[in-house]
Write a structure and sequence with these properties.
The protein is an all-alpha fold and about 300 residues long. The protein has one domain. The protein is about 75% helix and about 0% strand. It contains 12 helices and no strands. Helix 1 packs antiparallel against helix 5, helix 1 packs parallel to helix 10 and helix 4 packs across helix 10. The longest helix is centred in the last third of the chain and has 29 residues. The protein is globular and about 55 Å long. The N and C termini lie far apart (about 60 Å).
Length: about 300
């Protein structure tokens, strides 16, 4: 599968190191804040059945190409699982381990030219690092507005997928020159936006298709970028305590077996009905999120 000259070995080694760093910081921050009475990242307790089910369901369909951020945000909002301002951090910490596993799988089975893969991942990580630093300091209403807009964008991308209006793409597995610069800028922006809950899969599919690459490379590019940037951003959220520990554990514990099941057992499903269901739920949650933001603003006036 690999030889010692395969450049992906360097990428996999770097991902393994960042994964270990993420686990170390998450465990350290959870221990430091456990029982501190803040009501934020240090909440005690095991994930309940709903939180585990959210982790399994969202990561299962994420592996099949639907995405996990919009459904997770919607379910958390509707069930009031965690406060709105903690949803981005909860997703960034809890979804990170399952996404790292997805990254190893997709970067192994779908080949992308190394320069393209490395450049786009680096751009997305840089965007996420800067974005996470901003999001952890934002007031609740701005996070609610950002996530409400993110959910509307997600609904639009789901509709594009259902109606087949995304660019078809070409056959290339990499780009160079101006196309590489343009795609890197796009991934930088997508990495920053991911920290407020805008998932990367559909936008990455549009970017790679628009510049002539085969749509299949969106999987390793998006999963590889997401794995690195979520680990980096997750460290910042964990250290800031801006997340729900119990819900995040539900995403991780429920998500890891879901990824393995979807990747190696199920592989593919007829997903149009599920996409329509997601569109309805996401639109409802977007309206609810924006209404909450309006109520927060009225309180402040």
């Amino acid at each position: 599968m690999f030889n010692t000259s395969d450049p992906r070995l360097y990428l996999f080694t770097a991902l393994a190191i960042i994964a270990l760093m993420f686990v170390y910081h998450w465990v350290s921050s959870a221990r430091a804040t456990a029982g501190d009475g803040s009501g934020r990242g240090g909440r005690r307790g095991k994930p309940n059945l709903f939180e585990l089910a959210v982790g399994f369901g969202t990561n299962f369909f994420d592996t099949l190409g639907i995405g996990s951020f919009a459904p997770t945000t919607s379910l958390y909002k509707l069930a009031k699982t965690v406060p709105d301002d903690e949803i981005p951090g909860t997703m960034m910490t809890g979804h990170t381990p399952p996404v790292i596993i997805q990254a190893f799988i997709f970067m192994t089975i779908i080949l992308v030219e190394p320069l393209t893969l490395f450049t786009l991942i680096a751009a997305a990580v840089l965007g996420a690092w800067l974005g996470a630093g901003v999001v952890t300091r934002l007031p609740r209403h701005w996070i609610q507005i950002g996530m409400g807009v993110a959910l509307l964008i997600a609904a639009a991308t789901f509709l594009r997928s259902i109606f087949g209006t995304d660019p078809v793409g070409g056959e290339a597995t990499g780009v160079a020159g101006a196309d590489l610069v343009i795609s890197a800028v796009c991934l930088f922006v997508l990495g920053a936006l991911m920290t407020i809950g805008i998932g990367m899969y559909a936008p990455t599919m549009i970017v790679v298709s628009a510049i002539g690459m085969t749509p299949a490379v969106a999987f390793p590019i998006m999963m590889g970028s997401a794995a690195f940037l979520m680990a980096v951003a997750g460290i910042r959220f964990a250290r800031a305590g801006r997340y729900g520990l119990k819900a995040a554990l539900g995403l991780t514990i429920g998500g890891i077996p879901a990824v393995l099941a979807a990747a190696f057992i199920v592989r593919s499903l007829p997903l149009d009905v599920m996409r329509w269901l997601v569109v309805v739920v996401v639109l409802y949650a977007a309206v609810a999120m924006l209404r909450s933001a309006a109520q927060e603003l009225r309180k402040g006036n």
